[in-house]
Amino acid sequence: MKDTPPAELLRCATRPEGLPEDPSLIAQIPTKIRAGIIRLARAFAGNADRTDRLVNWNVPGSCPKPE
Amino acid sequence: MIRTLFAKVKAEAFFLVLLAVAAVGAWLYVQYRQVSADRDDLRHRAELICAGSGVDFAAIGNTGRGVRCAQTVAGLVKFKSDSDQLAAATLAQAMADHDARQNDDTRAARAAAEAASSAAQRMEMADAQAERTNLVDSDWFRAVNGVAGLRPAR
Description:
The structure holds 2 protein chains of 2 kinds.
Chain A: E1 27-28, H1 31-58
Chain B: H1 2-11, H2 13-52, H3 67-130, E1 135-136, H4 138-148
Helix pairs in contact in B: 3-4
């Protein structure tokens, strides 16, 4: 018995463009805010990877695999 | 003595033969009743069994009695063995699918963990450089993109 989740739940993780890596851009960011940005980035990667794995578990090969 | 007895028997010979025939007849009659009761019982049971398979035991047209019923039962037996086989095959396929999925996911999880740990190392180094002045440049931004697994914005 196969119970496929709705299409909405089978969409791969959204991965927008991140921060610009332009060498001319320099910012001053206090340590606490830097730590917050890093926490967000880490959580984003974890959630996105798990979403893709979950989608791939349900419909194998639908999301790109990490190299 | 014996002679008189023999003479009497001879006189009653007709009656004795009649008695013997009656005895045999009675025995046959009992046998017949037993056999017919047995037959009725068997027939009744055959009808019950056939009714259980959903087909009449009675003969229809040229088909002898019980023939269609036997065919139906044979078909049911075949159906059962076929469906058993199919179920076993389906189960085996499901298990193989599950194993393949499990392997794929384990690989993906390991790759993600490795990428995350090397990105975290680079992030730590880039952040350590910004620790004193709070100034961050493209190195730090690249490290953040690495941790988040995102490509840079243009």
